[in-house]
């Protein structure tokens, strides 16, 4: 049995990371999972996303949603959707102002290329300190790749 892997993309910009995978499913099916915060824990490759605490049934530009998280200790984080193009792109950020973005490209024949990116290049000094202290930038590419593999498995069922 072959091991499915997402491609970790190189980045020249500090405090950014990205990964990509091809999923044999239409963009709308994939986007439906991404636009529903109650499903995020199902494909989280980091193991830090526990559940949605408050969220609309489907995200939209400007929507806010709160998640129960755990990195050593449990905490809650409130996110705001800052980009939304139905079946193409969704991005959110939280208090520290880094963004998580998913971009979907229809490849035809029912396949979709999904790129997940993390951008903390324009954040405040305290947030940069936290990223360094927590070691997040070392883990994020691997966790993003694992998330995409899990997303692929769900969407290809």
Mean pLDDT: 94
Total domain count: 1
CATH superfamily: START domain
- What is the CA-atom radius of gyration, in angstroms? 15 Å
Q: At CATH's second level, what is the architecture? A: 2-Layer Sandwich
Quantity of strands, as a count? 8
* Helicity level: 25-40%
Major sheet: 8 strands, antiparallel
Spatial sequence of strands, sheet with the most strands: 1-2-8-7-6-5-4-3
Helices and strands in order:
Blueprint (H helix, E strand, L loop, with lengths): L6 E3 L6 E8 L3 H8 L5 H4 L5 E6 L9 E8 L1 E13 L3 E6 L4 E10 L2 E9 L5 H10 L1 H20 L2
Antiparallel strand pairs: 1-2, 2-8, 3-4, 4-5, 5-6, 6-7, 7-8
Please provide a written account of the structure.
The structure is a single chain. The chain is built from four helices and eight strands. The protein has one domain (16-155): 2-Layer Sandwich (Alpha-D-Glucose-1,6-Bisphosphate, Chain A, domain 4). The chain has an eight-stranded antiparallel β-sheet with strand order 1-2-8-7-6-5-4-3, covered by helices on one side. A hairpin with a 4-residue loop joins strand 6 (89-94) and strand 7. The model has no long low-confidence stretch (mean pLDDT 94). By secondary structure, the chain is of the alpha+beta class. InterPro entries: START-like_dom_sf.
């Amino acid at each position: 049995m072959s091991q499915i892997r997402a491609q970790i993309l190189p980045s020249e910009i500090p405090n950014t990371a990205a990964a990509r995978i091809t999923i044999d499913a239409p963009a709308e099916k994939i986007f439906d999972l991404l636009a529903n915060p109650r499903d995020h824990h199902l494909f989280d490759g980091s193991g830090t996303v526990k559940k949605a605490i408050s969220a609309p049934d489907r995200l939209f530009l400007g929507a806010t949603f709160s998640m129960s998280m755990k990195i050593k200790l449990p905490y809650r984080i409130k996110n705001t959707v800052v980009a939304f193009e139905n079946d193409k792109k969704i991005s959110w950020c939280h208090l520290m102002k880094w963004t998580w973005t998913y971009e979907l490209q229809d490849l035809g024949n029912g396949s979709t290329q999904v790129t997940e990116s993390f951008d903390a290049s324009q954040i405040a000094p305290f947030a940069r300190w936290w990223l360094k202290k927590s070691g997040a930038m070392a883990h994020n590419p691997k966790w993003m790749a694992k998330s995409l593999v899990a997303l692929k498995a769900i969407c290809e069922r």
